[in-house]
């Protein structure tokens, strides 16, 4: 544990190219997670994100077994999962249980495929807990490409997405295509989730997609402020998590989740002390 | 499902001042029929609503009031007949329509402020981020918030507001787009008396100032009785259209309900009294004669 705060070692590692690449990946991921997060939270989609990330793992495992690119496999798995979950009405009473059913089966399939895979064990473990260090140029390009597409879509669809999320009944009455939007948003979240799976791992993707936004929504009710704060929190968790993990050489995800959880606790405490005054704006 | 016998005679309402031609009508239904399979909710419904007219849509549960609202919003297709709302077919998202849903508590975890909810009514249906129109949007939202008396709580999270405060915001959200037709689906449900009066007064003031037509679905007519120009009363596929004086009579409602119904007027209010248990849904929901209404006069 004495290596945990070895600043010299950290600085030396930061100058390495593969660490720089990892930081870029984390920054892009933090941005994506931060802008999508408040919409995910306002739609109560946390469990659906979790389900999507588990099925990204299944896709990644299938790709590993078949000798395809793991990143593309995870992306394909997450988008298929997002489409399936997006087609279900999130208002329906059995929505959560259906996610649970699909998630459990997909995860079981993933475990089977990982068992069948006879390659390096580190590749298997990487899908669960992420391997942000060691991203190659192709995966950075994939991530950046996806980020640009998702951000562009988000800019185009932001107002109807927010409307459909917080006020679906009136949104429908005003002609907002809520069903189609739910599907598009699910795919956007699926893509971002799959990219998160590559870096922080499928088990911990919630730490970036949901926790920063949930923390932000604790201390502000303004959608703009919530988005800015969520981006800030996600960046602190993702980039800060990597930097902290360098010296001890510990798994990135442990630090990412710890940071985002800490941020959430602070925001929760702030909202508790404010309760009663009712001025969360 | 015979209803021809109780359809109002053509002369019943034709002399009223709001009778207008179809081209100018805010809402025009002709020969409208809505059926789910064998079940006919209503058929042969003709209704022209003039700009500035306040029409209450009454009837027991399951009589097709909310379905009528869905048809007007373009969320449900007519089985037969024609419909025009604000001069257009009720395609998805006619911007000339404002909609106020039932008062229903907004999830306390929803992280938006009152002004965001109203802002979404202004341009939430538009694509893009809307950065160019921010100033005009803010001015319009501020003006409407002030008009409904919601300025004081507009920056609080919606989920933490009371039902009455939320419903004021709903009215602002519907009015912010300056609609020519205002569709209200039980907007007073579960509001206390003061807020019922506040919300209905806001709606009334809007239609008087802008000439917007109002279709107001409600279980009980009394809170809006002084505002109502005409009533559409739906019961089991039968209906009547006319002024409250024409429709809210013992004779007409007995015909509609096909049972003995007495309409009693007390201190400017209308109370519908049926033989014990026969009005089923009507009494269950306290329609027309909730206890707390008894001491009010408008």
Characterise the protein shown here.
The complex is a heterodimer of chains A (281) and B (298). Chain A contains 13 helices and no strands. Chain A has helices at 7-14, 17-42, 46-66, 70-87, 95-116, 121-129, 137-166, 168-173, 178-199, 206-209, 211-219, 223-246, 252-274. With 298 residues, chain B is an alpha/beta fold. Chain B has one domain (4-293): 3-Layer(aba) Sandwich (Rossmann fold). Chain B is 28% helix and 23% strand. Chain B has helices at residues 11-14, 65-73, 114-123, 134-147, 163-175, 193-210, 244-247, 250-257, 281-284, and strands spanning 27-36, 39-49, 54-58, 80-85, 97-100, 181-185, 213-217, 230-235, 238-242, 261-266, 269-274. In chain B, the strands form three sheets. Chain B has a six-stranded mixed β-sheet, with helices on both faces. Chain B has a three-stranded antiparallel β-sheet with strand order 2-1-4, covered by helices on one side. In chain B, helix 3 (114-123) crosses helix 4 (134-147) and helix 5 runs parallel beside helix 6. Chain A binds chain B through residues 38, 41-42, 44, 155-160, 162-163, 166-167, 169-177, 216-217, 220-223, 226, 278-281, and chain B through 73-75, 91-95, 97, 99, 101, 106-107, 109-113, 116-117, 120-121, 123-130, 155-158, 160, 170, 173, 183.
Give a short account of the largest sheet of chain B.
6 strands, mixed
Q: Percentage of helical residues of chain A?
A: over 70%
Residue windows where pLDDT falls under 50 for at least 5 positions of chain B: 1-22, 280-298
Radius of gyration over C-alpha positions of chain A, nearest whole angstrom: 19 Å
Strand arrangement, major sheet of chain B: 5-6-7-3-8-9
Shape of chain B: globular
Overall domain count of chain A: 1
Overall pLDDT level of chain A: 84
Q: Total helix count of chain B? A: 9
Could you name the CATH topology of chain A? Answer: ABC transporter involved in vitamin B12 uptake, BtuC
What is the number of beta strands of chain B?
Answer: 11
**Secondary structure tally, helices of chain A:** 13
